[in-house]
DNA sequence: CGAACTCTTTGCGCCGGCGCAAACCTTGGC
DNA sequence: GCCAAGGTTTGCGCCGGCGCAAAGAGTTCG
């Protein structure tokens, strides 16, 4: 409990706030625990709160009219979600489910607005976060429009494995469980195609999966595929 | 010249500002005329200004490593662009070109921050704009991931024809010139596929093009295709 | 008003990825 | 540690859309 304000300090949404401000923020939020598989909200529901993950992992996904699904993003500790809804039409544009046992903190809309009023820095932080996500979304759009499935999956794995996966050469693990279907739904592919590609990489020793958790063993190879250098298909 | 403050009042970025505030905003901006084809900025360049269109139309596009292009959006009067760059890594993430003769107004970063400081409402407006775009981007992502090319093109045409295209039944025109390549680059398709689909619709009398400007004559049909009710292919 | 340019159309062949079905394997619950 | 449930793999056939090439408009200049 006394940890709370300190944890908030690490959130991008509250960067630059004083200790008192953080205490204020912490005091006005509601903490909730979300056992694995909890549906926190669904697409189209009225949005009355904005959320942030303290521990665990949420899956944010958007459904099309006829069942098609796209996973928009995974939310980990310190990241917020369901916030843009408050500033647009007041309805959540996606579903939120906890992938593993998780803890979240949330603020009602009036409270958040009041906090912004009291600490304008929060508004700027919000712009920064939205800007970063917008940029990421546009990059994904370009990928989806112009790149092949294997490249998109490679990119996605690198992104999910965290910033470390961009330089190092050690094994990089994705810290939460993912099904083939999840991976497919993130990349705009089918379960079958995702399975075939990942199995190929597994046979080649590039990656492995245990308990739905994926580890990249050959970062160099995955990076090479992500950058579009074709795999060995064309070699004898 | 004296019109400027009034024009700014219509911009979403300056909603809720007083007349004096608008005059302040207008006075600190720089107005520039951009003949057709002017490249205002390119991807990767350092971003020192944020922009808004007063008249005309800009095309914002993102290039991949090997020449692939995605058109992110078209910017019309009253809309802003090149703004998120100031709040992320300070580099423009895309190219901006004027499609027709245009006029823009822009503010330097320090000036914009000063304005936000003086009129915090601007920060909230920024969050709203970014939120709306983020939502749109995510919807496009889902479309791109799960829908076929003809549906995506139909959707895009409806979006470009403006809000009126969603209800009315009159002809809806897209107010600026578009090549087949442009349409393809917005939808993640190839020039050839876009041409084939549009020609089919033209033959059926759903749309027509003159001087690169497209008009939808059968909104009902285009809406039907966008919603996924298959065309007559399967009928005898 | 006509010439040059750019954009558009279309035939043709090909292939990446989809999607079903069925067997197989892993995983989590008890 | 066992068993049921759920996730994964893989063969096979198919098709939407790509991509080249070359001819055919439409558009924009001088």
Summary of the model, kept short:
Chain A is an alpha+beta fold and 236 residues long. In chain A, 41% of the residues lie in helices and 22% in strands.
Describe the 3D structure.
- Two copies of one chain form a homodimer.
- With 236 residues, the first copy, chain A, is of the alpha+beta class.
- Chain A has helices spanning 4-9, 19-28, 84-87, 109-118, 121-146, 149-160, 180-187, 191-203, 219-226, and strands spanning 30-34, 39-41, 49-55, 58-63, 69-75, 80-81, 95-98, 102-108, 172-173, 207-210, 213-216.
- In chain A, a hairpin with a 2-residue loop joins strand 10 and strand 11.
- In chain A, helix 6 crosses helix 7 and helix 6 crosses helix 9.
- The first copy, chain A, is globular and about 55 Å long.
- Chain A starts with a helix and ends in a 10-residue tail after the last helix.
- The interface between A and B is large, with 43 and 41 residues.
- Chain B binds a DNA duplex (30 and 30 nucleotides) through helix 8.
Largest sheet of chain A: 4 strands, antiparallel
Radius of gyration of chain A: 19 Å
Task: Give the amount of beta strand of chain A, in percent.
Answer: 15-25%
- Amount of helix of chain A: 40-55%
Uncertain spans of chain A, ≥5 residues at pLDDT below 50? 232-236
**What is the tally of beta strands of chain A?**
11
End-to-end C-alpha gap of chain A: 62 Å
Shape of chain A: globular
Instruction: State the assembly state of the protein chains.
Output: homodimer
Major β-sheet strand ordering of chain A: 1-8-3-6
Largest interface: A-B, 43 and 41 residues
N-to-C order of helices and strands of chain A: HHEEEEEEHEEHHHEHHEEH
Briefly note the structural class of the backbone of chain A: alpha+beta
Average pLDDT value of chain A?
91
Helical segment count of chain A: 9
